[in-house]
Design brief:
Layout: E1 8-10, E2 17-19, H1 36-40
Antiparallel strand pairs: 1-2
């Protein structure tokens, strides 16, 4: 799959777009945050 055809989402905490990664292949629907840092700080905003 070419990089421009990968699905993307927007992080609800920082607002930055992020693309699909191989490590998220099995749980892409549950991925909400772009990074571990945003996931850990989800309650601070």
């Amino acid at each position: 799959m070419k990089k421009q055809h990968l699905p993307t989402k927007t992080c609800p905490l920082c607002g930055l777009p992020f693309t699909w990664r191989k490590k998220w292949e099995k749980n892409w629907e549950e991925v909400k945050y772009c990074s571990e840092r945003c996931r850990r700080n989800k309650n601070s905003s």
